[in-house]
Amino acid sequence: MASVCVDKGLEGVVVNASRISKVVPEKKYLVYYGYPVQELAEHCSFEEVAHLLLNGELPNLKQLSEFENQERKNRTLSKNLISMIKLFDMSAHPMDTLRTAVSFLGTEDPDTLKDDHKSNYKKSINLLAKIPCIIAANFRHKKGLDYIPPRQDINIGENFFHMCFGEIPPADVIKAFDVSMILYAEHTFNASTFTARVIVSSLSDIYSAVTGAIGSLRGSLHGGANEAVMRMLEDIGDPAKAHEWTLHSLEEHIKIMGFGHRVYKWGDSRVPTMKKYMLKLSNWKGDTRWSEISNIIEDIMLKEKNIYPNLDFPTGPAYYLMGFDIELFTPIFVISRITGWTAHIMEQLNNNRLIRPLSDYTGPQDRSVKPIHER
Ligand code: COA
Question: What number is the average pLDDT over the span 285-302?
């Protein structure tokens, strides 16, 4: 078969078919199994969307209750895992500790190497249930606070707040958290999802794939951008400084975090919904500084560069207003994206072929090895 050279970064290349989600950038359109993501965010819980991604259908009441029960029963972390989290260096980034803890989950699962759909579905629920608990346990450890065990009578978002802070915020805050979870859940063949698919395509296991995906997500060109956005907003600090700061950064050719996207060149379909909830959080907290700075940067970026914000731009300040430390923002993204990753892993394995592209060799040609004393 003739080989094909493609653009750097695989831009514009379709590498496989997928039923899970679709982006139509020029229409600012993103659907999960045919449902517009904005509608899912307004009308569904994160658990309903997780069911959709893992099963291909929104649940009815009975299916949702069964799904939630399954997830809630899997929340308990083993004593060994909790002990291991306590061994992590206090200064370690929570994405590093999460990556290690997810890899450890693979050692605890007797079915790690079983790769039939039923086992992988079970493991997907295990990861969905345990990842928020691992992040919260590590958060408390880093603050020198006691571990708070999970509750089984509340949803994923409520339980995450409970395990981090020992209390659950008002329903509006939980809704904003849920909306961010739904918007972050799935996004076609992004870098971390593709990483996960590549890993399982060798018939490796789901825990290895998710460990790799976490490593991919943490980079600042991908999920790590939500942390970078908040650090940037903190650095600016005052709406009165935002205009000059942004123009100066553009002059210096510094990338503005939370702007631009490989696929969305006319705006990110998820941003208006998240912006709305970020504004609600600002009003709830009585702190509109971050949205004021954000609006100024957004106006300048559009005017000067015609570049739009991506989802990380409003989620950064939204998580900050919810009370989370900045270094938790990308791990929080994982709580959500684990649904998309595991949906893609199962889809890949249901019709697998090893992913093995070619490279275009640009090194030296036709050399012969001289004995070492002649080199
Ligand atoms: N700030 C300033 N300029 C930006 C920019 C940003 N955030 N994003 C893109 N650009 C500019 C680039 O400098 C480049 O300009 P040039 O052609 O004059 O050199 C042009 O737009 C194309 O950018 P490029 O980085 O090649 O696009 P890409 O498709 O490879 O990258 C991202 C997409 C997301 C990696 C990129 O936009 C970026 O780094 N954004 C900031 C990080 C971020 O928010 N990541 C989260 C993504 S959801």
Answer: 97
Nearest CA to ligand 1 atom 21: 260
Nearest to 341 by CA among 126, 114, 187, 219: 187
CATH label of the domain that carries residue 304: 1.10.230.10
Closest atom of ligand 1 relative to the 258 alpha carbon: 44
What is the distance between the terminal CA atoms of the chain, rounded to a whole angstrom? 39
Q: Does residue 115 have its Cβ closer than 6 Å to ligand 1?
A: no
Domain extent, residue 346, equals: 36-218+328-350
Domain co-membership, 333 together with 307? no
State the average pLDDT over residues 336-350: 98
Task: Quickly state the pLDDT bin for 1 (edges 50, 70, 90).
Answer: low
Q: In this predicted model, what pLDDT tens digit does every residue of 144-177 receive, in sequence order? A: 999 999 999 999 999 999 999 999 999 999 999 9
212, 229, 258, 230: which is closest to 98 by C-alpha?
212
Report the alpha-carbon distance of residue 36 to residue 22 in Å, rounded.
10
Active site residues: 222, 261, 312
Q: Model pTM? A: 0.95
- Which residue is closest in CA terms to ligand 1's atom 29? 262
CB 356 within 8 A of CB 203: no
Decide whether any atom of ligand 1 lies within 6 Å of the 337 Cβ: no
Q: Are residues 105 and 153 in the same domain?
A: yes
- Report residue 158 as tokens: 């409520």
Q: Is residue 19 part of a domain?
A: no
> Looking at the predicted structure, is the pLDDT value of residue 28 above 90?
no
CB 74 within 8 A of CB 127: no
Minimal CA–CA distance to 177: which of 336, 341, 374, 361?
336
